[in-house]
Design brief:
The chain is mainly alpha-helical. The protein has 17 helices and 15 strands. A three-stranded antiparallel β-sheet has the order 3-4-5. A three-stranded antiparallel β-sheet has the order 6-7-8. Strands 11-12-13 form a three-stranded antiparallel β-sheet, with no helix packed on it. Strand 12 and strand 13 form a beta hairpin. It is globular, with a radius of gyration of 22 Å. The two termini are 37 Å apart.
């Protein structure tokens, strides 16, 4: 059945938007390329106008390019949170160590293989770890490392600079390039005001925009950054993935606001309209969506619904876009869509694993159309998302319900760590009712951030030190199991075995997300305050541009 409740009432506007997109796309791409041409210099490894460190700072940070407004603080977040210097510095040292290992042998490559001591390129070879690490290095005060990384990216011979000149004949994932590269550049701009970084952001988005040239306006999954040829993935029948095309509006609307160019936001706003207007099967709960979409026919494919792989970040972006973006098109539809999705999730996908002796519920979220006893570690982002959903919720009762669900799911996510010999969670587990421990079905641990991300949000919401203690225990397990002899960090192949074999891969998101969320968990409440900053799904922070205007849900939890 159609999700008619949430269908935007702007069919004429959508038709006009599609026509405008077709007329403007070529002009925007040409304009962005022309602005970038000639800016990359071979000497000193910097763009024209940069200072001696290679960072060209806007003297009035963001003011001349759509400055984010000061946001009025809500009373939703716990007051009086102070820094734990000892633990935070230990996490900072881990980030410094991991980045130094990458810088030593893999600089410019996407990721480090710390055991074989080499760089690997799985995301287009644009230096994913460099871009993913920028804001982490900046927030942690590692300014020398930050400056070296940014100078490298601005060099004429860097892969990212070659992309800006249109010299790279390479297929890239639209989603991964969006959240890692575009997200990392936009956050660096918001933190520093470096105008050249904004230009790189706009050029990159112009390269990706060719993927949106489909009959439905929903982008295909891959695009060649030189030719503009786009295509879908064979293993999903060339369908587009909800978590991919549904998780772009935060970046593209932010880019439009900073660059004062509406074309980027128009692309992804049209995708949201298409999602909301396209009928789903009658068996799909209202408010939820299948994980696959045919961009050629404009129809959903299959009936599987997931808050894990293929679906997760779409739902995350519903609330993050609504909370964060000024002048969000059809803003109320985003909030209604989020609340409807959470209601349907609670009814159809949320299950109880067990209840403790003191009555605490351990809950998990299973896919619809899959194994109803399983949950991926990816799904452990949900407590953080639910905490954000409670902020400015329509009623205090709904806010309280969201926070309670967050606590119930987080208990299970933490138990996925504490139930293994390594202290690390398996990637996928199964739950038997009232069993002491989950069953490990995919036993690897690849440095994922989702549980520590949720513990960060829960700590900022409640001030309950339990969440800090749990985060620290997880970090110590990571340090025992992930560190290698040369300073790099790698995942492990089996969490059920002590001294497990490593996977020889330092994920770029380990620096972008996992260590950043851990660091912020032990920072004071003013650092990256959640009424002033929003994190994209790769944990890149953007300045919030929307003021608090809705009902405050100041519920004591």
């Amino acid at each position: 059945m159609a999700n008619a409740r949430f269908r935007p009432r702007i069919r004429a506007r959508r038709a006009a938007m599609r026509a405008a997109l077709a007329l403007l796309a070529c002009a925007v791409i040409a304009s962005a390329f022309e602005r970038t041409r000639g800016r990359v210099r071979g000497d000193r490894g910097a763009f024209a106008g940069a200072d001696d460190r290679g960072v060209r700072l806007n003297p009035v940070t963001n003011a001349s390019v759509g400055a984010p407004k000061m946001r009025r603080r809500s009373s939703y977040w716990a007051p009086g949170i102070t820094t734990d210097d000892v633990k935070r510095n230990d996490i900072k040292s881990a980030a410094r160590e991991a980045f130094a290992a990458y810088e030593a042998v893999a600089m410019g490559h996407d990721e480090l293989a710390p055991v074989s001591n080499r760089g690997v390129d799985d995301f287009g070879g644009f230096g994913a770890t460099l871009v993913d690490s920028l804001d982490t290095l900046y927030v942690m005060g590692l300014r020398e490392e930050f400056t070296r990384a940014l100078m490298y990216l601005k060099r004429r011979d860097s892969a990212l600079s070659a992309l800006a000149r249109g010299e790279v004949n390479r297929d890239v994932s639209v989603f991964e390039t969006n959240i890692r590269i575009l997200g990392g550049l936009l956050s660096t701009y918001d933190l520093t005001g470096d105008a050249d970084v904004l230009e790189l952001s706009e050029t990159l988005a112009s390269r990706l925009s060719a993927a949106f040239q489909t009959p439905s306006g929903v982008p295909r999954s891959f695009v060649n950054v030189k030719t503009g040829h786009s295509f879908g993935l064979p293993w999903v029948g060339k369908a587009s993935i909800l978590a991919d095309f549904g998780s772009m509006h935060l970046e593209w609307a932010t880019l439009s606001a900073r660059a004062r160019n509406p074309i980027y936001e128009a692309h992804t706003a049209a995708v949201f309209d298409k999602i909301m207007a396209t009928p789903v099967a009658s068996s799909t709960p209202t408010g939820l969506f299948p994980v696959l979409f045919n961009p050629e026919t404009g129809a959903w494919v299959g009936q599987k619904v997931s808050f894990g792989s293929l679906g997760d970040s779409f739902y995350e972006y519903l609330i993050k876009c609504w909370r964060s973006l000024d002048a969000l098109h059809e803003a109320d539809a985003w909030r209604r869509a989020f609340d409807a999705a959470m209601a349907a999730m609670k009814t159809s996908l949320l299950h109880t694993w067990k209840t403790s002796e003191n009555g605490e519920r351990f809950a998990y979220v299973a896919p619809l159309g899959g194994d109803a006893t399983s949950m991926e570690h990816l799904t452990c982002f949900m407590p953080g998302m639910l905490v954000l959903g409670g902020a400015e919720a329509p009623t205090q009762a709904l806010a309280a319900d969201y926070v309670q669900m967050a606590k119930d799911i987080a208990r299970t996510c933490v138990a996925m760590y504490t139930s293994t010999p390594t202290g690390l969670s398996a990637d996928t587990v199964q739950f038997v009712a009232n069993a002491t421990s989950p069953t490990f079905t995919v036993r690897k641990s690849i440095q994922r951030p989702e549980t520590v991300e949720s513990l960060f949000y829960l700590y900022r919401k409640t001030g309950d030190d339990t969440y800090r203690q749990q985060a620290w225990t997880i970090f110590e397990a990571m340090k025992r199991n992930y560190r290698t002899s040369n300073g790099g960090w790698q995942g492990i192949k089996d969490v059920s075995v002590e001294h497990a074999q490593g996977d020889d891969k330092q994920q770029s998101f380990f620096l972008a997300e996992t260590l950043k969320y851990l660091y912020l968990t032990f920072s004071d409440g003013e650092t990256m305050h959640l009424d002033e900053w929003v994190f994209n799904t790769e944990a890149h922070p953007f300045k919030i541009t929307k003021n608090v205007t809705t009902v405050e849900a100041a519920v004591a939890m």
